[in-house]
Amino acid sequence: MDQPPVATENAGSEVRDKTPRTERGRRTLRKLLDAAAVEFGERGFHEASISAITRRAGTALGSFYTYFDSKDEIFQALVRYMSEQLRDHVTPVVQEAPDAIAAERLGLQSYLGFVREHKEIYRIIDEAEFVDYASYRRHYETTVERIRHRLEGAAKRGDIRPDAGEVHAWAIAGMNVFLGMRYGLWDEAADVDAVAQAANDLLANGLKRN
Amino acid sequence: MDQPPVATENAGSEVRDKTPRTERGRRTLRKLLDAAAVEFGERGFHEASISAITRRAGTALGSFYTYFDSKDEIFQALVRYMSEQLRDHVTPVVQEAPDAIAAERLGLQSYLGFVREHKEIYRIIDEAEFVDYASYRRHYETTVERIRHRLEGAAKRGDIRPDAGEVHAWAIAGMNVFLGMRYGLWDEAADVDAVAQAANDLLANGLKRN
Q1: Which alpha helices (DSSP H) does A96-190 contain, by range?
Q2: A127 interface with B at CB cutoff 8 Å
Q3: What SUPFAM superfamilies does the entry give (chains A, B) (predicted)?
Q4: Tell me: the pLDDT tens digits for B74-128?
């Protein structure tokens, strides 16, 4: 995973480097971000508080201010952290796939599993639309960029249709996000492998009769 | 379009029928909902105010309370109103389609056009996730239900693959919403017909090489 945010402006508008330099510091930072995911996920941005985050993290209030200046700042870092956690969850699975279409199936399957274990991701990413639009947009743009890159590589190798590209990547991202909401978030009982298989077969072959 | 909300509970918990009985009343109600779309779309739920809605609508404050008891109540009615406007925009276009796959292309094309003209729809529907989750969920469930109904009818007639159903409908809804965000909302210059064509070709034929 990339390091969490490196430098932000503080009140005096000079830039303060907040990247932790020790393993202990990195552990504290992760504890704060994991606690923030629970706090923002349960209470939403407006109700969430810095003191509740440090309480959940089991850290002193001072530790918070070592890494963040404000609730806005940890929220922004959290969106990036969740986006990176998701990438790190899905990418190795996709890289093991035998072919380009299986890669998208395994990617969706892995995403649905991630949603089941991190149900707060929808509320957090979606609230970013209102709290921090740039982070919201960046999350989707970087996610789609990874899909587009996979598709264009596979098209170049002749594994899939030669015109696969950006529009297809946005279509796949939208499919995945909606299937995650319906079958990962709302429906505990759904068989996520069967959902991924059905969606992948649509992606592979389209709607035409065989 | 369906009538806007018919009955809600007021403070005394008895139910008050607020359906307008005259053409003039229906016109006032629509003016309030159109003004609410602009107000909530520009300022968001928390900053929006009832007095600004009536000012934008050019109606007296009293008219508001003829139809709604609160800001929450007009927001809920607005989500439903936008959902129905979208349905009424897309449905006749889809019904004119020569076949099931063209129906999805025309549906997406018509949706992208609607987004261009009603950019506030994303902010309003998405804010419902935080302000009124039941309305948020109902919007997607009824939208997907229409797609599923189209697909299952076409499958029964033998026009498309026989297993087309719910998972495919959620996948298509997700595709459309994300393509609408990327090419309808964020990118004024995108050729929406070309986007709809590319996405529909994916939907028709999948990713496999021809």
Answers
A1: 100-117, 120-131, 133-156, 166-179
A2: yes
A3: Homeodomain-like, Tetracyclin repressor-like, C-terminal domain
A4: 999 999 999 999 999 999 999 999 999 999 999 999 999 999 999 999 999 999 9
Interface check B171 vs A, CB under 8 A: yes
Residue A199 in tokens: 């969606």
Minimum distance, in Å, between the CA of residue A146 and any CA atom of chain B: 16
CATH number of B7-205: 1.10.357.10
DSSP character at residue A7: E
Beta-bridge partner residues of B7: B17
Sign of CA dihedral A159, A162, A167, A171: negative
User: How far is Cα A164 from Cα B209, in angstroms, rounded to an integer?
Assistant: 10
Instruction: Work out the minimum CA distance from B107 to partner chain A, whole angstroms.
Output: 15
Q: What interhelical angle do A120-131 and A133-156 show, nearest 10? A: 120
DSSP-derived secondary structure letter, B69:
S
The answer to whether residue B142 neighbours chain A at the CB level (below 8 Å) is no
Total H helices, total E strands in chain B: 9, 2
* A37, A117 contact by CB (below 8 A): no
Domain ranges for chain B: 7-205
